[in-house]
Amino acid sequence: MTICFDTNVILDGVLQRTPYQQAATGLIHAVERGDLTGQLCATTVTTVYYFVQKRYDGPAARTDVRDLLHLFDVAPVHRAPLERAAESDFQDYEDAVLHSAARTAGADGIVTRNTADFSAASLSVHTPTELLTILDHRRE
């Protein structure tokens, strides 16, 4: 199963944002274990760098980006996903870009804290807690 991680889930894990950190970290560990294939939208990588650098420093941000790139596949953002996002029924363009890039890159679903923002999605959409439960049931 290939899941594209919304930026908020990655930031919850990397920045240790409570009360969301535990579920986000659990999913990142699931990617490390190979329980699922994690995917990041290319725009997520630059956003993570920005927020980590702002909270800590540039070297810490580069380390986090390198770690994420080692662990996750990247859904590229180029003209076609951007155009599809602009024509979509999504209210938020950034969410539409993530969804379009994930579809183009072959993701099976998206994990986000904001499932309502993905009501126009054609991919399955899960909260981090829901996805952890799905993974637990698959291991049984």
UniProtKB/TrEMBL annotation:
Pfam families: PIN_3. Residues 3-116 form the PIN domain. It comes from the Bacteria. This is Nucleic acid-binding protein. The lineage of its organism: Bacteria, Pseudomonadati, Rhodothermota, Rhodothermia, Rhodothermales.
